[in-house]
Amino acid sequence: MIDFIKEARALFPYTQSMRRDFHIHPELGFHEIRTGGIVARELEGLGLEVTKGIGKTGVVDRMKYAPVVCILLLAACASTGPISTPVPPMPPSATPLPITATVERCAYVEAYQSLSGLTAQVDQAIKQIQPDASGRAEAYGENCVYASSGQATFSAMETDFYFTIPVKDLKDDNELGTWIINTMKIVEALPASSSAGPQAGFVEFTFKTKDDQKNLRVQIGNYESLPANINANEIIPTLFPSP
Question: What is the pTM of this model?
Fold first, then answer.
C-alpha cells in the first residue's frame, strides 16, 4: 500500500521550490504564459493528455482512467471515469483597461511560531507523568517578508517539541531511554491535524539534575524507524551511538 504521507513529504522540497518560483515570477491575468507552461509541463510529466492555449493561457488535462484520488499542483480530483479539468480564464471586458502590476516579491527568512494550544496539550500530558517536567511545541518554517511594509506571511514546514525533564542520573541510559519512550508516546498520540507543516520534526529533550543537564534531539522519523520491541536501555546507544 502506498504511504501517501511519506510520498507527500518527499515531494515537499520540490513543490516548495515551485511555489517560490511562481512568487518570484508573477504574471498578470491573461498573460500567464510562463506559469501555464510550467503547469502543462508538470501535467505532461505525469503522463496526462494536455491541451494548451485554452482561452489564450488556460490549460486542460484529460484523464482517461482515474481510479484513485490525485493531487496536481493546485487542483485535486477524485474520479472513477474520464474527467476533464479546465482552468478557464475570465472573459476580457469589452473595453480593456490598462493594468499596472502591483505584485511585490518577498524575501524568505527562517522563522518559528509558537503553538499555544498544542503547547498546553503536551505540557499537561508530561506533567501527569512528572509534575516538575514541562513541554512546549513550535512550528518551524519560513516568513515571506515584504520590503515595503515589513509584514510577513508564515509558512510552516514542521512541528518541533521541547521537553524539560528532571532525572536522577544523566548517565543512566535506562532512565533516559524510559523518558524518551514515554514522551514519544505523548507526541505520537497527538492527532495529525494538530501539527503544522508537511514533514516530521524533532523532539528535543533537556534532562536536568540538580547540578547539570543534558540535551538530546530526537528526529521523529528516526525514532519511528526503531524496532517496536526495543528496550529502554537501548534507546540512547541506538539513537546516539558513540563515535
Answer: 0.58
Q: What is the pLDDT along the chain (243 residues), one digit of tens a residue?
A: 677 777 777 788 888 777 777 777 777 666 677 787 788 788 877 778 877 777 666 767 666 554 444 444 443 333 334 444 454 554 554 555 555 555 556 677 788 989 999 999 999 999 999 999 999 999 998 888 777 777 778 888 899 999 999 999 999 999 999 999 999 999 999 998 888 888 889 999 999 999 999 999 999 999 999 998 999 999 999 999 887
DSSP-derived pairing of the beta strands 75-77 and 70-72: antiparallel
- Write the CA distances from 65 to 19, 50, 54, 132, integer angstroms: 28, 14, 22, 58
Collect all residues with Cβ–Cβ distance below 8 Å to 46 and sequence separation of at least 6. Answer: 72
Distance CA 124, CA 135 (A): 8
Q: Which amino acid is at 91?
A: P
Q: What residue ranges do the domains of the chain occupy?
A: 4-86, 106-239
Sheet containing strand 58-63, edge to edge, reads 49-54, 58-63, 83-86
